[in-house]
Amino acid sequence: MRIPAFALRAWLLWLAGLLFCVLGWAQPVAVSLSGLAEPASLDTYALVLEDRDKRLTPDEALTQAHLPWRAADGVVNFSFSDSVYWLRLRLHNDGPTSVTRLLEAGSALQDMVDYHLVRQGRIVQTVETGDRRPFDRRPLPYRYPVFPIALAAGETVEVLLRLDTHDGLFEALPLRLRTPAGFLHHSQIENVAFGAYYGAVVALLLYNLLLSVLTRDRVFVLYVLYLASYTVWNLCFTGFGLQHLWPENPHLGHTLISTTVPLIALTLTLFSMHYLQTATRVPRVHRMLRWLAVLAVLHLPLAWLDWYAALFLTVMPLLALLLPLLLAAAFVIARQGYRPALFYLVAWAPLAVGAGLTLAKIVGWIEASPLVEYSLNIGSALEFTLLALAMADALNRLKAEKLQAEQQALQVQRALAADLEAKVRERTQALESANAQLQQVAITDALTGVYNRRSFDATLRREYNRCLRQGLPLALCVMDIDHFKPYNDALGHQQGDQALVAVAQALAARVQRSTEYLFRLGGEEFAVLMVDEGRERALRQIEALRDAVEAMALEHPASPRGCVTLSCGLVWVAQPTVEQTPDVLYAEADKALYRAKQAGRNRTEMAP
Ligand SMILES: Nc1nc2c(ncn2[C@@H]2O[C@H](COP(=O)(O)OP(=O)(O)OP(=O)(O)O)[C@@H](O)[C@H]2O)c(=O)[nH]1
Questions:
Q1: Where would you tag: which of 288, 348, 390, 422 has the fewest CB atoms within 10 A of its CB?
Q2: Which DSSP string corresponds to 126-155?
Q3: What pTM was estimated for this model as a whole?
Q4: 211-249 pLDDT per residue, tens
Q5: Is the shortest distance between the CB of 76 and ligand 1 below 6 Å?
Q6: Do you find a cis peptide bond into 145, omega within 30 degrees of 0?
Q7: ipTM higher than the 0.90 cut
Q8: Cβ 329 vs Cβ 283: under 8 Å
């Protein structure tokens, strides 16, 4: 059977169209270099292929026609995935001269990046790099992979990238193309900016370290630990750590980054708890924060086991919970009027925004852009600066509180001293008054209230010595109630006591001068001592006393006179001599008393 020519042509056309479509799917659009922006984002020009089994070789990826390549719809970001991903790009030098361009795979943390340059369908150059490989494998010593590509005039080249991970966490990987001059300019600006950033962070770190040593305040220590964790993490995150600090040891960078992320969560939580005083101000949030701190600690073993993807899968939600919780706590505490919380809010807000943007980029919610890429650094720089202000304020507050505490302590000390002094004064007065009372009791006769026998002995001795020294006259009179036994017998002992009190009062009312003393010597016997008194005046005074008792007319049924009377024996010396001791004087007065009794009572007899 003869096939019509038009049918054959149609079939051939259909076959060519089919072939064109298949090849067309597998071929990326060639990017013409002229007219590209500086830098040029190539993300949307790339084709992407997911290699679930990780079996494809670069040649297979290039030549197998059936592979399901698809166009990238922005910055590639495969986030959590166990596959290998291939990227293809075509570059066409449509200019008249040969040129060099620099292709950036703009992530410092992408584990494995295999770069293949394809000329005329053949791989002519391969570079295996990424942050799980030693730094010196990079064709350009830069913090993330950069591949220089030379293109002859009119030449088209293809770039094939193979992206793989340690255990399933991809980084967002912006693809950019720069001219050598553009790259130099960009890297110079970036170096200066990051240099300033790290310089400021190190200065802040040292400043706060010094403050923590000087003040011994836990809040400064925690802030230093937080800042140090953050700085180490940042060095890993930006790739400067691998480039400058551990170029031979990429494993160290991974251990550090997966250790510092939970450490940041931990130190940030502890710092905030202390700085905001959450325990007393928001106790419920404080308990939640304590649990989040424990969770952060539990993440550390994952870091040391190198379970990188698993760690980030759980630590991200932890951070996503922690940051809003801290900001909410600070907000509530600031509303309570606690000023440091206000500083905290202002300081943390930019970092929280930066962290939020970075998280969103990592999990693929938003596209990477320069602002998003540097948001964490911008946020943290602002945060550190503002927090330095907060720390200075905290220091001022600390000083003011210390001063206030010192003043309060001083006031309390003064009040205590005054109180103690008052108490001592009070006690002393009470003691003095008790002593005076005791002394008074010791020298007073309990029944009559006049001086007693003990006082008589002491006063006689003292006044005798004074008169002896000063040559003064001294008079001593011993008095005895007449017939007191019959009085008691007739009226009773109680009535006798009342008579004794009445006699004592009658005598005391007339013994008022400072040089005269009245004593009850015991029983119904009294004594009067007079210093610096003339003989006549002394005798008159005793007679007056005796008269006063008689004048009371206190009824005495057993006395011949019918009332209570006194008999008195008086001794007077113009100036006592050494021989005339108190005992001698008393004996003479007693003898005179005896004579008065003998002579009929109710009278006064003077010693010769
Ligand atoms: N009610 C009372 N009687 C007392 C007290 N002390 C002593 N007497 C009594 O005083 C009396 C003293 O008696 P005497 O020494 O014999 O002397 P008198 O009876 O006063 O006789 P003359 O002194 O010679 O006039 C005794 O009966 C004592 O018991 C006292 O405190 N209260």
A1: 422
A2: EEEESTTS-GGGSSS-SSS-EEEEEE-TT-
A3: 0.61
A4: 889 888 888 899 999 999 999 999 999 999 999 999 999
A5: no
A6: no
A7: yes
A8: no
